Fold these 4 entries.
Entry 1:
Amino acid sequence: MPVLLYSDKAHMRKICFHIQKGGVGKTSVTGNVAALLAREGKKTLVVDCDPQANLSSWLCTKKPEYDIASVFTGQADAEAAIQQIGGHLSILPVISIGSGLKQWAETELVRSPRALEFFISDLEKLNFDYALFDCSPSLSLLERSVISCMDELINPLSAEFFSIDGVESFANELHHIERSNRITIKNDKIVLNLLNRSFTRHRAFLEELEKLRYRIFVIPQDSRIAECQIARKSLADFAPKAKSLPFFMELVHSIMEEQEK
Ligand SMILES: Nc1ncnc2c1ncn2[C@@H]1O[C@H](COP(=O)(O)OP(=O)(O)OP(=O)(O)O)[C@@H](O)[C@H]1O
Ligand SMILES: [Mg+2]
């Protein structure tokens, strides 16, 4: 019998909460959804692909020796760079100061268009159920390369007038990525973050959004979300009674149900 180093079981589901707009909660949603998937017993990896390193500063329990750029440049393999955060949750971080990620993305990535594909196929050998990717608010070559390797893209939005334009322009960009790579990527969910139902304009925005083709998952404004980041904990660990937690759970259950179908 050959010895299996890694399990050959289920496929690792790759999800990115992304939109080309800043400050809408991409990082907050990614980290908290990942922590909840891990609490549900799913082996979950978060991959910080944003040179701002917000996700890493929030969730890393120790200063990283290696980061995602070390993996791309061949200084470390992914296993050496991954940190276990606790339970079933792990992170492949970015080092906030001095990481070569931005430089690598702007120089080497152009010359190695399949780099992300190879990187993700290495992650797939590590037996994770889910890998959630956090990117910076842009659609440069790095974000496009990450997107082209995903099973699912979920768009986080805040309740602002221009957000609908942002969703439409993201859908166009995604079709372009799908066409040029001859792939299809699931994109049927919107997370409407930072919603305050006491604002008429927020309720009106939600009504507009409901006319589109997406399933809408609402996350309300909740100061505990910002506070858990200062405490360097996930929302579920920091404030198990937070009002936004059941809303995150609804999203997590929907993601898990689809995986199990
Ligand atoms: N539902 C919420 N209620 C209250 N504050 C929130 C909520 N979601 C996110 N925040 C806060 O809003 C700020 C922006 O969130 P976050 O960093 O997750 O956005 P982002 O889209 O990742 O930003 P960037 O585009 O810079 O990467 C953070 O301070 C975060 O704590
Ligand atoms: Mg972010």
Note: Residues 22-28, 50, 52, 54, 136-137, 193-194, 219, 221-223, 225-226, 229, 244 surround adenosine-5'-triphosphate (ligand 1) (CB under 6 Å).
Entry 2:
Amino acid sequence: MRRVLETLAAIAVLATSCTTKDETLARQGWEDMFKPVEIVPEDSEDPDESYDPQSGEKWFKMIGIICSWTDVARRAKLDYVDIAKRTGINTFSIYNFPMDTDEWKSYTAECQRNGIDIEYEEHMLGWLLPRDLYGEHPEYYRMDKNGNRVNDANGCPSNKEALEIIRDRAKVIGERYRSTNNKYYCWLDDTGDVCHCPECKDLSPADQALTFENVIIEGLREVNPDATLAHLAYYNTVEAPTKVKPAEGIFLEFAPIDRDHYHTMSTSWASGKDGRTHGQYLKALADNLKVFPKETAQVLEYWLDCSLFSDWDESNLKEVAWNQALFEDDVKTYASYGIRNITCYTAYIGAAYVAKFGYPSCIDSYAEYLRDYVKE
Ligand SMILES: [Zn+2]
């Protein structure tokens, strides 16, 4: 298989060089394909126009991390609050936290006293549309490519009753997972397929996700009128929605998990696990920024994601593949698209990580560079 792919790649290179008569024109076409787009959604501010570095304004508004309670709880070994105070991290998203305990209340109160927002970034569709309704209402769930209703992931966004249930349960999320920055995240089920029923088959995964998100935000706003909700561009929803428009308050969260983590995002030809090239990723980002406002758009990255580098095996921790030059180049690329909000997984960087590899100075490098970044 590999040999066939290599042969095909060689033929592709050959074809390009044989059919290109004017290399300058070809290069221009290539650059045009991946340059940032100029069209912005109605009512969207241009982040560059509102930015005033002379007044001391910071380019990056959000400098976040996402990890589990076990990563942050052993503070004698690694104290994320101290790191945040020192380096400018201003948002924590912590999963598997001990809800309703004094320990959690005390921790979040300390975060807030130190200007650190608390939010909850999680896959939640399986909770919003409980799978155990399948027995009575298979029509709530997605149809697979063979025409069978299955409840393995997500649901049927064309089913009005399913949407009602999701809207209703979103109110519970709004109450139980109240964020301090009014940002909410109810991502689709991780790596789940979408609905292929006759009504949904022409809706892309991103259009289907947005259909769910447009009712989730209605539920959230019943309990918090200032709620905003992420549209996660990730896995099968990387490409922009084309048929469904976002309700007010939906913001873009671009999370290229399957990118090549060892080449900069500006390396157009690089491609990761899903086969998309970085050029295609940046085209998708630009397309998404035609649909969602630029000023609230956010990137979720994996530069510090020990869980990813350890292949999600916590018993065999691998050191984060931190590359300062790659990181800085990526930040400049994202900033060139108008991105002013960045967060990053630091999952598995906890006490055991420190014991094995020492203090993770890469977290300081990440936050300090974003904190001090001045956009030219
Ligand atoms: Zn459907």
Note: The domain at 41-120+177-182+227-372 is CATH 3.20.20 (TIM Barrel).
Entry 3:
Amino acid sequence: MRINRAELQTVCGVTSKLPVNELPEFAFAGRSNVGKSSLINALVNRKALARTSQQPGKTQTINFFLLNEAFYFVDLPGYGYAKVTKELVAKWGKMIERYLTTSRQLRCIFLLVDIRHEPSDNDKAMYAWVVNRGLKPVVIATKQDKIKRSQLGKQLALIRHALGMGNDDLLLPCSSESKQGIAEIWAVMEKHLGVGTASEETKTAAAEENSAAADIKATEDEAR
Ligand SMILES: Nc1nc2c(ncn2[C@@H]2O[C@H](COP(=O)(O)OP(=O)(O)OP(=O)(O)O)[C@@H](O)[C@H]2O)c(=O)[nH]1
Ligand SMILES: [Mg+2]
């Protein structure tokens, strides 16, 4: 999707009141440093809309980015960041929980995990919590550029197994550096937004997405 306008509209700290938005929201969750803010930048094709850092714990607020005046990206603080007090970690957890339980416009939550590693206990707990709330998370395996093509299937199978994902649950690899997988993530959001479903162009894109998803699945199956 072409993004013509992107702005950081609302920043919420631990004690802030969350906005009651009228437009659809897509949220990005995952441990600190997994690449949430980088992915937001890659999706909107901007270098620094969302602030990123090599130091974990960069995003310490819930940030609402308004795109094309039509929908929001919600950048959540990372969990599992050890260098702040337990008290603060707990407050962030509560804030994320408050957002996920009260948002009326959340269309899809993307749960990010690092493609190189087995999901952590925090990742597993987050995934289970989101599933238990009746939300259907789409898991994104980040930093695909850091592994070899030959490792892809094995890593995806490892992540799917560790999180206890069903065969039909979406797991998409991506890289904010090389831009691999970015179009597939957009295809998921476009489906939720119901944009351009009538056009031939979108039908082709959707067919391509389905075939890309089938390819990824085949790679995973091969690795089993
Ligand atoms: N090679 C590579 N590096 C990445 C990728 N995505 C993010 N990074 C790097 O990972 C680090 C963390 O990225 P962020 O986007 O700030 O991570 P975050 O999840 O927003 O982290 P918090 O705000 O602390 O929760 C930065 O140094 C990024 O450059 C990727 O796809 N490939
Ligand atoms: Mg961040």
Note: Strands lie at 6-12, 25-30, 62-67, 71-75, 106-114, 138-142, 171-173.
Entry 4:
Amino acid sequence: MVRQHVNPLSRIHQLARPLPPLIELFADPSLPLNLDIGSARGRFLLAMAPLAPQRNHLGLEIRRTLVEAAEDDRRRQGLSNLRFLYGNANVNLPEWLALLPAGQLELVTLQFPDPWFKLRHRKRRVLQPALLLAIAAALAPGRRLFLQSDVEALIAPMRQLVEASGAFEAAGPEECGPEVNPLPVATEREGQVLAGGLPVHRSLYRRNTAPLPPLADLEAQLEPTASGTDNRLDAEAD
Ligand SMILES: C[S@@+](CC[C@H](N)C(=O)[O-])C[C@H]1O[C@@H](n2cnc3c(N)ncnc32)[C@H](O)[C@@H]1O
């Protein structure tokens, strides 16, 4: 198999690398913030930022060359409400999210994350319990988390994790579903999937007022013992 994505567990991507504070990133750091995790070449946020100028937009991406190319485009477009940063969401985001001013994070998007199919590779998947709790802690009640994937067997454990946290309410089908994207711009991957006539699986969640469960309790709920889907994929993908 040709490896198309990086292993986020490799040592180089595990280095503590504090992300800069908002004041070093944006012309007006007080604006509400949209965060896109796994922003790749950046085309989604490069289109979103001019559409939503009263928001700051931050893309976090583990492949440095993509970040550099996206930043070049951002500078060319003269967008001061957009930045792309290199980092590993699982390593670098939780601490940074914890330092955000209360109520500033408006929307977190996690769209078409790398498809680590095998059960034994599940720790490489980006939406891990600790990251989900860090996102939930940073989102005020009513603020949104948006997930998309073209692989139903991979969005299923993400949904399971979000729902097991008890911290979110799912939006109804009129607001988000296979035919309804609540956001006005498609990502790169989404465009390819739709052009191929394939389905897109989407979930939109709003933070509720529930307290967050301890990490260990959430992890214990998600032990992969009954994950028949994962086992099937394990056998299929190599
Ligand atoms: C399949 S691509 C999808 C990109 C984009 N969101 C889209 O929908 O077109 C997933 C992206 O997430 C990035 N990524 C994977 N793991 C990551 C991590 N732990 N932290 C930050 N980015 C990550 C990958 O390098 C890749 O660019």
Note: Strands lie at 33-37, 56-61, 82-86, 105-111, 144-149, 168-170, 201-207.
